[in-house]
Amino acid sequence: xxxxxxxVSGNNRSRWAxxxxxxxxxxxxxxxxxxxxxxxxxxxxxxxxxQSSLAWVVNAYxxxxxxxxxxxxxxxxxxSRRGVFLTGLGVFTVASLFCGVAQxxxxxxxxxxxxxxxxxxxxxxxxGMIVTMFPEPREQAKAIGVYSFVxxxxxxxxxxxxGVLTQVINWHWIFFINIPIGIVxxxxxxxxxxxxxxxxxxxxxxxxxxxxITGSLMLGVYTIVSPAAEHGWTAPTTLWLGAASIALxxxxxxxxxxxxxxxVPLRIFRSRVVSGANLIQSVTVAGMFxxxxxxxxxxxxxxxxxxLETGLAFLPVTVVIGTLSLKYSEKLITxxxxxxxxxxxxxxxAAGLALFARVPVDGVYLVDVLPTMILIGTGVxxxxxxxxxxxxxxxxxxxxxxxxxxxxxxxQVGAALxxxxxxxxxxxxxxxxxxxxxxxxxALTEGYQLGFLxxxxxxxxxxxxxxxxxxxxxxxxxVEPELEPVAA
Length: 488
Fold this sequence. Notes:
Elements: H1 12-47, H2 51-78, H3 81-101, H4 105-124, H5 126-133, H6 137-168, H7 173-176, H8 178-192, H9 207-231, H10 236-258, H11 272-301, H12 307-313, H13 315-327, H14 329-336, H15 338-356, H16 365-392, H17 400-435, H18 440-468
Helix pairs in contact: 1-2, 1-4, 1-6, 1-8, 2-3, 2-4, 2-9, 2-17, 3-4, 3-8, 5-6, 5-17, 6-12, 6-13, 6-14, 6-16, 9-10, 9-17, 11-16, 11-17, 11-18, 13-16, 14-15, 14-16, 15-16, 15-18, 17-18
Pfam families: MFS_1 (PF07690)
Keywords: Cell membrane, Membrane, Transmembrane, Transmembrane helix, Transport
Transmembrane segments: 16-42, 54-72, 84-103, 109-132, 144-165, 171-193, 205-225, 237-258, 279-299, 311-328, 340-361, 373-393, 405-427, 447-470
């Protein structure tokens, strides 16, 4: 057990058993984020959602999840990471039951919001627990590779699982399946994760800081996924809500800079490596998430794949990510360093997205889709473990939950932002093409092509951040030498 008590009962075997339990919990959360997308048409038909109200099946979850990640990660440091993880599992599992039995729009949306709360509590502390369980660089790189595989490849598995469950049974089972997984994961977590005690609230809980950051993030995510996506970025509602979110964030920073016992110590941001890694994560995920969303629409609306065929189409991404993350990422990071591994991975992702921007109306999977899946899977399998290593490299043991929550927060904000921007610009391009007399499928394809091209551009921006913000390694390959350790 570590001095912070996060870890496990002692021997090497129990540590890896704990890693499996944590990753199963993470997989359940990641699967749920994408499995719902495939089932949305069935949900709409069954519960009578309009096209605009249907978005809230996804948005309710995203707002709670993205808004609470940072707070949840810090609460794990202060109270108990094991306790926060188990609480999140319980909330998520119970909420899944209510989602599954929902017979009204209101019940499903409320249950999805509660699911987001549970998902934030569960996932926010996982990476922090992993880095304290595996302090040795080589083992840590291997463990982060396993985590990165689950976190990144789980999305495409969710597409396949959603297609199978929706097509073979019905949409209710995409939620019911979480119940046995959540229960079994909690049972094993109680056995392999030792009770721990956080650093405590010291001079008192920073309730105001917690309220400010949660309010800012929730309002920010809401602004991105609702008024910005529906009415545009220059609409008055979007501007006012965006300004309010930024004002809350500024107030939070002021509060944390002056509080005697801040909820989120600002020293975590002093490291250019940690800050740079989070920026890269946000921009890259923005491109990736929008690509997956538009890619699903392309194969369904243009190539006319059904739900199951759609899941199978994206399965190669999972296979490639798994092969690289589980077998090679640790060796590459240990041998060449996280930064040197990160750069070629991002280049491959950008190339894959650029290739996807050339998809034709009469596309053939083996020629026009599969090469993109392989390029992107290779890039993600190489660069995401390196990103996680960099993002956690400056955190002390007492701040590991905060750093874990931060990387998850930037991921969710990037995903929401990428989806809103790419979907909006893609739809605008489709509308323009249709107004010029293009056939429906041609207009759709032109919109998707623009979205893929912009997604590639976002990853190019991430490459620029690597080259300008992150410096080249000069000493040890795993912990970047330019990182100044964060003072406790």
